[in-house]
Specification:
alpha+beta, 5-stranded mixed beta sheet, globular
Amino acid sequence: MREYCQSLYSRADLISFTSVTFFGDIIDYIHDRGWPNQVFWVGGTDEGHEGIWSYVDGTLMPMGAPYWALNNCDGIIIQPDGNTQQNCAALDGDSYYYMTDKECEYQHGHPICYYD
């Protein structure tokens, strides 16, 4: 997905969240557009350093609330929970657009790109 953003503009990349306010603004934007139950890729991964999540620019991602999903249907599961199989971060409509970890090869998501 990162390659898609960079193909649009050489300085473009997957989005990273610099504040809780910015994170909320993106979620509001998705809701306002009426895009239910979609998956949106963000620029976070723990690939190569399992359990240590960082953005594409190398800064560490904040963990826990309010960024990551808490699934409690079958018990309490705090995201990310995919171990070595799920290494890419996405906003997941099934989790109210909180972040979840997905397999990086998952093809049904939409990248959120940005550039400075």
